[in-house]
Amino acid sequence: MTQLVVSDVSKRYGATVALDRVSLSIEAGSRVAVVGPSGSGKTTLLRIIAGFEAPDAGRVTLDGQVLADGPAIAPAHRRRVGYVAQDGALFPHLDVAGNLGFGLPRNAPDRADRLRELMEMVELDPAMLTRRPDELSGGQQQRVALARALARKPALMLLDEPFSALDTGLRETVRQAVGRVLSRAGITSILVTHDQAEALSFADQLAVMRDGRLVQSGRPDELYWRPHDSRTALFLGEGTLIEAEIGDGFVASPLGRLPAPTSGRRGCGTVLLRPEQIVLGPPRSEGPNAIVQSVSFGGSRCFAQLRLAAGETELLLTAQVESIRLPAVGAAVSVEVRGDAWLLPEADRHGGS
Ligand code: ADP
Known about the structure:
The chain is of the alpha+beta class. It has helices at residues 42-50, 96-101, 111-121, 138-150, 168-184, 196-202, 220-225, 230-235, and strands at 2-13, 16-27, 31-35, 57-62, 65-69, 72-73, 81-84, 156-160, 188-193, 205-210, 213-218, 240-246, 250-253, 256-259, 267-273, 278-281, 290-296, 302-310, 313-321, 332-337, 342-343.
């Protein structure tokens, strides 16, 4: 069931176009990540959905209720929408119970039970209810912020880079915990982040923004393997773009003939190869071989930059390599491609988005 519908929403700040006719539909219970470089309009979109800003034009509806119709908006507190900010924004002078209490009716008879339940929902020990925010770790503070937002039983939860202030290891743990909590509660959630790895692992739907526009949305694997343009391709991960001649179900490239869905296109095009598609082997006597230019060690994710001379052309390729078997810089290696190459849609060749 479609729950949140954003239609043709635009917003300007003076001469800056923050959002340019953004449309997005979100299914009930799904987890959506809005990604894009800094300044692309992510926060503005989230703030409009939350009710902190009014759009200049366009509509936002939640379960059929109109939240915004151009500049006419329903006030934030009347929306069934929770919001967790980057720094949690807890009240520093109140203990955890006091912070959580903001979302609960004052004299509710089951208040103590609700507080305990909220703590358990976010996987925190109810004994922490008497602590002040400065007596909690960053990760614990973010869970309290989430619990406070959950107290009002929202239909939609908005998460504005809530993990960005946390250390890498903790970030992963808290992100997984938050994802679990929201899934269990069946709450639709939208996460805004500039971290593509975070987005790919959190979301079941990804929306990519650039220059105030939503350039592509869909399943994370779909966007990763079949991006609409080169900037989205390279924003979502490492990759190599190669010019190739288009055949019927394949492309002819300096790496040889590669299977590719070509949908009846002809002529030349740009194909994307992800590093995990490029497999290195011992050099072949009949060539062509590539030379390892550099290796970047990143623990479980390591990459090698390769240079391949094929006839007139020289190609630079990024391959993922195993950390236990790093190739030597300067070594000659054979290159094989696994899976399909992805032919970018035609418009991208002219610099379209
Ligand atoms: P993101 O969250 O992707 O970094 P934002 O939505 O914060 O992007 O900003 C989009 C654009 O709108 C940017 O150019 C930003 O400078 C501008 N902008 C955002 N908020 C304001 C504001 N209150 N006043 C003026 N310009 C703003």
